[in-house]
Task: inverse folding
């Protein structure tokens, strides 16, 4: 009875005992989350000798903090590298994440509200033509010619052979195909992608990284957003359509504003991926387009890991993302759908 | 205009009607744009992914059937057929890849028998109850055979006398990691949707680990797990493990990798589940409260169905990513002790560094095969049932 009183007062508000337990659990996980970060901060103020002599926990008590690592990274020897890579990271991550969100949500919307029936025959023809083009390029044919010939062959075959196969794929098959592009481990992918961008003369440019991250992130955006769109009541879109809005208009002004929580969560995820990606960046960038994770890994030098520099770099690398996360968190708020249907 | 599941034909007829001559050019244009909407929405994404995926896919398939050989003045790529795969599955790399086999223990036999019986029962149930299609029955038979083989491998390598190879270790990472991360993420998301003072503080804090993966994260945990200079050194010392370096114990090292993985990935599941929980219809919950439903009933009948589609997607994405785990074991333990923490991708990475490109591609393709199989079974048997009722 006592508990039901409490429950009625407001939605999901816990009883005192439940509250205590909640705080206990949340507090414990907070400790687990914060301790490694605390250790990073502390290490960034340590002299090498303080790190190597064993664990010291509290600055001023256990050891005398020093700014030497911060100085080295930000104004000292490494500052030029750091700032250039910092700019690269920001540009590459923001651009690719925004593009992935835009293209990905559009595709996800298409997959939830339209029916696609790509013919199996057409797909097989296409794959065959691409394989032919790849073989031609490896045999020494210039890639421009290979692409043109491949395309021409595809159009030609599509008119004749491709139509014969009656079997078609559905939306779910497209979605699964998209996500299956993430299944091959990056190790197997980097070398062909390297060759691809070399042929396109895009190596060591930000565009190469942006395109790659875009392609890597798109399937995840599509899958996450598809579920959010499915949970949006279709009546709203019907109302907008009756009022004469076009499909693009409905997508942009009705559907997107309603899925802000999902958009924010997805954006954060793809942003963080592009921000921290290592292996692809290692291959696709020389000196000009390097990103920060490469600088971090470079601190694991032949003299052993330079923990103090590494800590500073990791910290300055994550601070902007944390700021973005804090700024966006409030959009994952309750009740965006409430009242939308009534109104 | 009606927006429906199959609106393309509908919108087409509607658009045609709109495009009467009197409406002029603008309307014709608009009608055409409207007709093409379906393609406009999906094609950019598909083309970008296609552009970057098909080329690597074909090249690495070919590489997995070939061997890189250094000859005078360069290298040549020699076609060797299935030799790379044979080496992994039955040849010199078998103990590394699959593990050292031992005869299953009695418990192993029991587990294997139980799993096989359960799988066969579900197959029989499917054949009897539902409308059986040829594709469905073939797919299920293949699934049963593959899962049985997997379990057979598990009981033989994890039992006494056996040693798990990279394949089995990867399965362990995936299974333990995904399960714990999902449950933890859901629990934390549920706790922070309550009306607790300060819940926004917790939400922001819980997102933090997501920001420093994978490289920075791996190095941070290498600092933390250092038994000599790390912060937990007094604890290891008190347990008598100080100089013994607990990371030298296979399961200790694996636990370190899994814990770091959980630390780093729980926020992703947390934030997406949080967004899903926050988007669920409040009116439904209010109505249920008025009708006198208790917390558990609300959770089970309203919340779970609302977050189930997102959950299945999350588990799928997380599973695919977990199969590719490489940074953590690489930086944290370097795959050691021995090959105890080596994942499939790490093995591919190591043999790739040793310029065994063919072997590396073969490992990558084996992984692709396993993930595709797991993913397809998952989508067909679980996700489809959940999302399409």
Result:
């Amino acid at each position: 009875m006592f508990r039901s009183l409490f429950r009625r007062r407001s939605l999901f508000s816990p009883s005192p005992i439940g509250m205590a337990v909640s705080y206990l659990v949340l507090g414990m996980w907070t400790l687990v989350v914060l301790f490694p970060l605390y250790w990073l901060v502390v290490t960034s103020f340590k002299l090498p000798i303080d790190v190597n002599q064993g664990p010291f926990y509290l600055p001023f008590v256990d050891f005398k903090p020093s700014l030497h690592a911060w100085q080295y990274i930000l104004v000292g020897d490494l500052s030029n590298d750091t700032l250039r890579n910092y700019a690269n990271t920001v540009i590459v991550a923001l651009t690719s994440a925004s593009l992935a969100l835009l293209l990905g949500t559009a595709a996800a919307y298409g997959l939830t509200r339209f029916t696609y029936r790509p013919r199996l025959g057409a797909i097989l023809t296409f794959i065959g033509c691409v394989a032919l083009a790849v073989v031609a390029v490896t045999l020494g044919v210039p890639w421009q010619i290979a692409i043109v010939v491949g395309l021409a062959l595809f159009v030609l075959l599509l008119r004749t052979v491709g139509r014969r196969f009656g079997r078609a794929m559905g939306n779910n098959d497209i979605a699964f195909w998209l996500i299956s592009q993430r299944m091959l481990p990056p190790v197997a992918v980097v070398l062909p992608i390297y060759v691809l961008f070399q042929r396109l003369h895009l190596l060591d440019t930000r565009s190469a990284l942006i395109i790659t991250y875009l392609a890597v992130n798109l399937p995840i955006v599509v899958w996450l957003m598809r579920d959010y769109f499915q949970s949006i009541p279709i009546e709203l879109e019907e109302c907008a359509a009756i009022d004469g809005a076009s499909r693009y208009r409905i997508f942009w002004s009705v559907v997107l504003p309603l899925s802000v929580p999902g958009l924010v969560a997805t954006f954060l995820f793809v942003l963080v991926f592009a921000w921290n990606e290592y292996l692809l960046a290692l291959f696709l960038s020389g000196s000009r387009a390097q990103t920060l994770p490469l600088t971090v890994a470079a601190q694991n030098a032949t003299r052993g890991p330079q923990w103090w520099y590494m800590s500073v770099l990791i910290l300055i690398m994550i601070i902007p993302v944390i700021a973005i996360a804090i700024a966006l968190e409030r959009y994952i708020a309750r009740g965006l759908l409430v009242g939308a249907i009534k109104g | 205009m009606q927006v429906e599941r199959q609106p393309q034909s509908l919108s087409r007829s509607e658009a045609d009607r709109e495009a009467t001559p009197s409406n002029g050019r603008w309307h014709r244009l608009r009608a055409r744009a409207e007709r093409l909407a379906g393609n406009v929405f999906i094609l950019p994404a598909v083309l970008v992914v296609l552009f970057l995926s098909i080329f690597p896919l074909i090249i690495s398939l070919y590489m997995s059937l070939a061997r890189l050989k250094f000859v005078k003045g360069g290298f040549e790529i020699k076609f060797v057929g299935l030799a790379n795969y044979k080496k992994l599955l039955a040849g010199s790399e078998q103990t590394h890849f699959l593990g050292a086999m031992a005869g299953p223990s009695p418990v192993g036999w029991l587990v294997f028998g139980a799993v096989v019986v359960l799988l066969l029962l579900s197959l029989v149930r499917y054949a009897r109850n539902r409308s059986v299609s040829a594709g469905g029955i073939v797919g299920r038979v293949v699934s049963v055979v593959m899962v049985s083989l997997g379990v057979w491998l598990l009981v033989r390598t994890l039992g006494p006398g056996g040693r798990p190879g990279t394949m089995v270790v990867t399965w362990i990472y995936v299974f333990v990691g995904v399960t714990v991360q999902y449950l933890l993420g859901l629990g934390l998301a549920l706790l922070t949707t309550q009306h607790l003072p300060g819940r926004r503080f917790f939400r922001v804090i819980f997102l933090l680990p997501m920001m420093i993966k994978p490289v920075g994260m791996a190095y941070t945990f290498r600092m933390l797990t250092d038994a000599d200079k790390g912060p937990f050194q007094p604890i290891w010392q008190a347990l008598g493990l100080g100089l013994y370096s607990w990371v030298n114990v296979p399961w200790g090292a694996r636990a370190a990798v899994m814990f770091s993985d959980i630390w780093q990935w729980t926020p992703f599941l947390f934030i997406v589940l949080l967004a899903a929980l926050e988007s669920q219809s409040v009116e439904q919950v209010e109505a249920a409260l008025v009708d006198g439903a208790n917390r558990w009933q609300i959770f089970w009948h309203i919340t779970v169905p609302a977050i189930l589609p997102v959950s299945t997607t999350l588990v799928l994405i997380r599973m695919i990513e977990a199969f590719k785990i490489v940074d953590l074991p690489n930086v944290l333990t370097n795959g050691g002790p021995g090959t105890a923490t080596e994942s499939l991708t790490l093995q591919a990475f190591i043999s790739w560094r040793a310029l065994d490109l063919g072997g590396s591609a073969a490992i990558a393709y084996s992984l692709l095969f396993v993930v595709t199989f797991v993913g397809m079974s998952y989508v067909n048997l679980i996700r489809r049932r959940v999302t399409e009722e």
